[in-house]
């Protein structure tokens, strides 16, 4: 994915950093046996992990347990550092539905050794991303139904109302660490229902009112 556009006439963004939030829905933290965070839990993915709709997720040979995590994704449109809560949403250019693919077996091993999650989260094709819609077409980012089906069967269904840290707070927190730049993405965390995918599966990620994200799965 070389660039992002919200509309044909709008600005073009080069992909920047992919900021991801872990454990942002209580039921998902619980299903993996994790305590609820007191601050947003932040990790990064490389932009080389991006995959457009219509593409195929590659199951890396290093893993035999790749999981889907469907998420609301924010595209940053305006540079900012130490952004205030009042101005937070002004820094968003658009939204999309995305998948934070995770090699769960690699992640569990890293967790047990106290190692970072970079490998488990960073493989090529591990950040599928749907087409964007403009910020102005989303009335309330904290009232969106988020859903993922695999081969037509619903695996994940949640609502952004259940986020522990809403989008505004994520922007405040992330901008206290990183300067947010146009083209940066924030993957805002996943609701419960994460599970394994296999070669040949067809994934359909949806947020009401957004263009869909459809991806397949294959071996290398
Ligand atoms: Zn995630």
Question: Could you characterize the architecture of this molecule?
Answer:
With 220 residues, this protein is an alpha+beta fold. The protein is 15% helix and 33% strand. The chain contains 4 helices and 17 strands. The strands form 5 sheets. The chain has a 6-stranded mixed β-sheet. Strand 13 and strand 14 form a beta hairpin. The chain binds zinc ion. Zinc ion binds next to strand 3.
List the helices and strands and how they pair.
Layout (H helix, E strand, L loop, with lengths): L3 E2 L6 E2 L4 E5 L3 H6 L9 E5 L4 E3 L3 E3 L7 E2 L2 E7 L15 E8 L2 E2 H10 L4 H5 L4 E3 L3 E2 L10 E6 L2 E7 L7 H11 L7 E3 L14 E6 L5 E6 L2
Parallel strand pairs: 3-15, 5-11, 6-17
Antiparallel strand pairs: 1-2, 3-4, 7-10, 8-9, 8-15, 9-12, 13-14, 13-16, 16-17
This protein binds zinc ion (ZN).
Zinc ion binds next to strand 3.
């Amino acid at each position: 994915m070389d660039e992002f556009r919200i509309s044909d006439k709008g600005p073009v963004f080069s992909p920047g950093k992919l900021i991801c939030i872990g454990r942002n829905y209580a039921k998902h933290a619980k299903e993996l046996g994790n305590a609820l965070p007191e601050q947003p839990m932040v990790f990064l993915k490389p932009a080389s992990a991006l995959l457009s709709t219509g593409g195929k997720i590659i199951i890396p040979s290093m893993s035999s347990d790749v999981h889907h995590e469907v998420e609301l994704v924010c595209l940053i449109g305006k540079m900012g550092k130490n952004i205030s809560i009042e101005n937070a949403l002004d820094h968003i250019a658009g939204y999309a539905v995305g998948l934070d693919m995770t090699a769960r077996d690699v992640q569990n091993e890293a967790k047990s050794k106290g190692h970072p999650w970079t490998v488990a989260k960073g493989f090529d094709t591990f950040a599928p991303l749907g087409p964007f819609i403009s910020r102005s077409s989303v009335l309330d980012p904290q009232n969106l139904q988020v859903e993922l089906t695999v081969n037509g069967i619903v695996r994940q269904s949640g609502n952004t109302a259940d986020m522990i840290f809403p989008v505004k707070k994520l922007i405040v927190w992330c901008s206290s660490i990183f300067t947010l730049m146009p083209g940066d993405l924030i993957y805002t965390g996943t609701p419960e229902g994460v599970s394994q995918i296999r070669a040949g599966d067809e994934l359909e990620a949806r947020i009401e009112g957004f263009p869909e994200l459809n991806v397949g799965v294959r071996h290398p």
